[in-house]
Amino acid sequence: MCADQIERLPTGITGFDHIANGGLPKGRTTLVSGTAGSAKTVFAAQFLAAGIKRGEPGVFVTFEETPDALRRNMLGFGWDIARWEAEGKWAFVDVSPQPDEEIVELGSYDLGALLARIEHAVRSIGAVRLSLDSLGAIFTRLSDTRVVRNELLRIVSTLRRLEVTAVLTAERTQEYGEIARYGVEEFVSDDVVILRNVLEDEKRRRTVEILKFRGTSHQKGSFPFTVIPGEGIHVIPLSAIELKQRSSNVRITSGNAELDRMCGGGFFRDSIVLVSGATGTGKTLMATTFMAAGVRQQERSLLFAFEESRDQLFRNAIGWGIDFEQMERDGLLRVICNYPEVTSLEDQLIFMKAEIDRFRPQRVAVDSLSALERVATIKGFREFVIGLTSFIKHQEMAGLYTATTPTLLGGSSVTEAHISTITDSIILLRYVELFGEMRRGLTVLKMRGSGHDKDIREFTIDSRGMHIGRPFRNISGILSGQFTHIAPSEIDRLSAMFRDEESSEARDQSS
Amino acid sequence: MSKIVLQLYIAGHTPRAERAIGTLRRMIESELAGYECDLTIIDVLANPQQAEDQKILATPTLIKSSPPPYRRVIGDLSSVTDLLQVLNLPPKS
After folding, report:
1. Do A353 and A254 share a domain, yes or no?
2. Which residue numbers delimit the KaiB domain (chain B) (predicted)?
3. DSSP 3-state helix, strand, coil percentages of chain B (rounded to 5)?
4. Can you say how many angstroms the Cα of residue A16 is from the centroid of all Cα atoms in its chain?
5. pLDDT for A375-423, tens place per residue?
6. pLDDT by residue (tens digit) across A479-506?
């Protein structure tokens, strides 16, 4: 992945090492800059905590919070600093402001004492890592900024001599603009990471961006992250993983023989199918059938439901002759119902990944994505879908997402527009008005890597599920919702003209 | 009358440290000649743990722990007059 010579120190921060192409440059000092509340202190502490888990002791130089406050605050992430201190794995250099202390300056000074303390702490526990939080606080404590600047330079070069990999945090006054206050990037400028906490469409979005790693590679752009209890910072590396998925030729059944036939023999394993349709067209039925078909073949199936309650879902399934309760008892099915509003999309993704990791299903269904879309920005939603999709595909699972179109007839959903390129197959369910009657139509719009049926077929739903019938022959404009009825002779003429149409044309139809 | 207790933290015998020590000696010998005075010089390079315990940031740092009020002064203590004023010395009573 990284062909350069600069050795990396894996931070152990989930997802960060991925965007850092392996970790922070080893033996160097990285500036981590962010506005107030951008999780700089958490990053600094997690860098050490993750190191300790790898057997690398760490020193925390604190200029802001007292060691007591840090011990207390970080416990929520599962980091027992007091115990690590007792075990000689963590040491504080406490430079936090003392409440009763007033420093009077009389003449010139240096930070020789701080330097000696840092060196002493590093040597006494054999530290591999060091965090300093934060640089700005030093400047507010001492009046001679020129001295502070010189001394920080001396500290950075001492750290290099001690061969510790260090994280220095610094404040920014705004999300976009100069890297940090006091121009600190001038003396620790080799490696810069920026943490952001941006308000976007009234929703908070945290992102991390590696601005530069001198002389070595990293992933460009900003990546969303979240701070979760019991873990800390969790970076979601999206584009970094998008294109490395395996694909498979193994077909699995959708649960509906006719639909399998339309898809050229079933869905592919390791593929994601998007089912789009207006409310009541049969999306939940399709997800239910897809789950049940897995269970019938002794595959573990996991359903995330965001629109309907458990009771309602189970009742629906019974109505179609599928006993979810029994399947759950057999341990082959797990249904998780969640209100999308209770948590941010980043946390939702992490929660879903954890559930997938725990249950290890071969099939995953999400009903529906549109419910999740309501709680996020467009960008955040897209990132969520990419993150989930790549995760599912890495696990060699088949996924089925449903999306709700906002209009009853024709149209496309925002969900569709944003994720259609990510999914491997798209199935559209549409209402069709036919001589004063509402019927339902289904078409396979896209089937990556395979031929498929191009017809728009009528289907019905009864107590045994979905039944796909004959193509609509005397109507056009179903996908747009602008129906036109055509005389039968015209149909024969047209189908003769376009007998050999390719799938690309079918795709064009949709756009 | 209480003893005057002073601790000076230095990081090696730098010119700054020598200037601070010089000023302190002059102050003790001239202005505080009639008082019992206890000055300890601590080199943080040799005793980093002591610097940690006292949370010393800059050097030189002078701490006056007695008589009250407690005082912490950083810098090379350029003048005796300023230093006496900052330290609230000699004791008024």
Report:
1. yes
2. 7-89
3. 35, 25, 40
4. 12
5. 887 778 888 888 888 788 777 789 999 988 876 666 565 556 667 677 7
6. 766 767 666 665 566 566 555 444 444 4
Interatomic CA distance for residues A430 and A453, integer angstroms: 16
Q: Indicate whether A439 and A307 sit together in one domain.
A: yes
- Clarify whether residues A273 and A146 are in a common domain: no
Paired tokens of A181: 């206050």
Do both A111 and A231 map to the same domain? yes
A87, A182: one domain: yes
Block residue for tokens 């001394």: A151
Name beta bridge partners: A62: A94, A133
Nearest one of B81, B83, B78, B85 to B39, comparing CA atoms: B83
Q: Is residue A504 part of a domain?
A: no
> Mutation test of the interface with chain B: which of A85, A106, A138, choosing the one with the most B Cβ atoms within 10 A?
A106
Residue A81 · residue A90 · CB < 8 Å:
yes
Of the candidates B48, B59, B72, the beta carbon closest to that of A110 is on: B59
**What's B2-85's CATH class?**
alpha beta
DSSP states of A328-348 as a string? HHTTSEEEEE--GGGS-HHHH
Counted residue by residue, chain A has a size of: 511
The half-sphere exposure of A399 on its side-chain side, counting CA atoms within 13 A, is: 28
Question: What range does the domain containing A74 cover?
Answer: 6-238
The CA distance from A297 to A333, in Å, is: 12
Inter-chain CB proximity B75 and A119 less than 8 Å: no
Phi, psi of A219 (to 5 degrees): -75, 135
* Nearest one of A362, A369, A418, A371 to A395, comparing CA atoms: A362
Q: Tell me the three state secondary structure of residue A408.
A: coil
Q: B73 contacts in A (CB within 8 Å)?
A: 103-106
Q: pTM of the prediction?
A: 0.69
Cβ B56–A105 below 8 Å, yes or no?
no
